[in-house]
Amino acid sequence: MKTINKVLLGLAVVGSLTVAVAADGAQLYKSCGACHGKTGEKKALGKSAVIKGWEATKTIEALNGYKAGTYGGAMKGLMKGQVKALDDAQIEALAKYIETQK
Ligand code: HEC
Predict the structure, then answer these.
(1) Residues 73, 90: Cα–Cα separation, whole Å
(2) Residue 41 and residue 39: Cα distance in Å, rounded?
(3) If you average pLDDT over residues 91-98, what whole number do you get?
(4) How do residues 38-69 score in pLDDT, each as one tens digit?
(5) 52 Cα: distance to centroid of ligand 1 (angstroms)
(6) Is-contact 45 75, C-beta < 8 A?
(7) Ligand 1 centroid vs 40 CA: distance in angstroms?
(8) CA of 76 to the centre of ligand 1 (A)
(9) 8 A C-beta contact, residue 26 and residue 32
(10) Measured from the CB, is residue 47 less than 6 Å from ligand 1?
């Protein structure tokens, strides 16, 4: 019985963490949607790739690259402004959110 309770508690904790991360990413993404589209379906300002459904690792690499100034095209300065205040956890939450967009 004790073991079952522990397992159930474990599942409850994992479940709430997943929800917290997803909610956070959705919240953060609100400031991106104006250019990238509600689900990332647009080419931002006609310049970016369509980021909808990008694998999280790819988005993390791109966003960290914009932060460091090592990634991007003609408008990378604009994206640097979007991501410079984000920490690793926020970038990860955004990347996971974008990955779930279908
Ligand atoms: C003001 C419009 C605007 C906003 C807001 C914006 N972006 Fe962008 N984004 C762009 C443009 C333009 C590019 C292409 C930049 C370049 O030249 O590399 C881009 C590129 C990207 C790329 C790489 C795509 C590629 O073509 O390689 C990712 C990923 C991305 N943005 C994610 C985000 C996220 C996440 C947010 C919110 C935190 C965000 N953007 C907010 C305009 C915007």
Answers:
(1) 23
(2) 5
(3) 97
(4) 999 999 999 999 999 999 999 999 999 999 99
(5) 12
(6) yes
(7) 10
(8) 8
(9) no
(10) yes
